[in-house]
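HUMAN: I'm a chemist; might I ask for a sequence paired with its structure tokens?

ASSISTANT:
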Amino acid sequence: MKKVVRLTESDLVRLVKRVILEQPQNPGFYDELEKKGYKMKQNWTDFAFTDQKMYGEIKEATKFFNYERDMIVFFENVNKGPAPIRFITDGEKVYFLEHSYPYKVNDAFPNPLGPFKVDVIRKYL
């Protein structure tokens, strides 16, 4: 039996964004990060309920990206050195949060937070 499904424009936009998010701009990059021990959190807006400071910093950092906030993914690796490494990415750029970047980034770049293009920062992660 066929069903007619009615979608509003906002429903359709949300569905398209979700599909695009599941297919990252740089497909191998997210897999590479997960193999290195980084944990991905696609719905970073959950921080609004658990960690106001982190949510505020992520929201402020989204201005460096061309996409709406649904397209930005949060990554964290708590096993990389004495402090966790946290950043957001859209698959093309990386922006570090809470001054939690790999120490080699601080030596190589004048602004260690970013944003950095993925191809430039990949070897430091």
